[in-house]
């Protein structure tokens, strides 16, 4: 779990796609109760481990490297936030049927060559697949995968399943059979909406 600090909510992995979960590292974006889960580099690393991008050992190595190069860690975090907001805008706009926003697409495209420079074709048990280079401790290794996820989702047929939570606007892919998912999670926004509807009915009767 990501440490919420003094914030009273929780972060949940609900996007169904890495880049969407990355966009969701801000809760209640643009509202008074907005909370940024990546407010320091340690949280960025913890998020990477939470979503399975890096192992516990890699997370510890990243933190050591970040301590030795605090300026670079800060730069990576700033880059992460810029990319995250671009990714969020791109997919939120798509969700509402708007055209791809060009400035945000340019941010994503500018980072792609750097990310793809670490992508290789690997073979394991006669299976060929994409693998990420493991050389050295790169503070940005989490971002490479996020960017690759965003580029792939944009071209995937799964993009038609893209939705936003009706309450908090978190992004997710609705993979339910009847396309009926309206909330990030039933426990959070779903239940709150139910309680609100119940109160409204009670008041009006
Ligand atoms: Zn929600």
Describe this structure in words.
There is one protein chain. With 205 residues, the chain is mostly helical. The chain is built from seven helices and six strands. The strands form three sheets. Strands 1-2 form a two-stranded antiparallel ribbon. It has a two-stranded antiparallel sheet with strand order 3-4. A two-stranded antiparallel ribbon has the order 5-6. The longest helix has 26 residues. The protein binds zinc ion. The site of zinc ion has 8 residues, from helix 7.
Shape category: globular
Order of helices and strands: HEEHHHHEEHEEH
Q: What is the total domain count? A: 1
In the CATH scheme, the class would be: Mainly Alpha
Q: Runs with pLDDT <50, length 5+?
A: none
Q: DSSP helix count?
A: 7
How much β-strand is present in the residues?
Answer: 5-15%
- Helix and strand composition category: mainly alpha
Major beta sheet summary: 2 strands, antiparallel
- Multimer state: single chain
CATH superfamily: Jann2411-like domain
CATH architecture: Orthogonal Bundle
What's the end-to-end separation, in Å? 42 Å
Cα-atom radius of gyration: 19 Å
Strand order, main sheet: write it out. Answer: 1-2
Number of DSSP-assigned strands = 6
Mean pLDDT, as a whole number?
A: 93
Which small-molecule species are bound to the chains here?
zinc ion
């Amino acid at each position: 779990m990501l440490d919420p600090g003094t914030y009273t909510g929780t972060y949940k992995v609900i996007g169904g796609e890495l880049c969407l979960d990355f966009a969701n590292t801000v809760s209640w974006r643009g509202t008074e109760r907005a909370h940024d889960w990546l407010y320091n580099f340690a949280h960025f690393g913890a998020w990477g481990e939470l979503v399975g991008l890096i192992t516990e050992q890699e997370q510890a190595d990243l933190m050591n490297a970040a301590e030795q190069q605090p300026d670079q860690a800060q730069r990576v975090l700033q880059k992460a936030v810029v990319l995250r907001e671009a990714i969020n805008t791109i997919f939120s706009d798509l969700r509402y049927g708007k055209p791809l926003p060009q400035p945000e697409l340019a941010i994503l495209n500018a980072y792609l060559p750097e990310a793809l420079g670490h992508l290789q074709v690997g073979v394991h048990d006669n299976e060929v697949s994409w693998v990420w280079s493991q050389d050295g401790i790169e503070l940005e290794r989490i971002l490479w995968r996020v960017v690759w996820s965003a580029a792939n989702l944009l071209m995937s047929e799964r993009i038609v399943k893209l939705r936003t939570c009706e309450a908090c606007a978190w992004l997710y892919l609705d993979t339910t059979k009847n396309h009926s998912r309206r909330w990030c999670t039933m426990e959070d926004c779903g239940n709150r909406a139910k309680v609100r509807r119940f109160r409204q009915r009670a008041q009006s009767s």
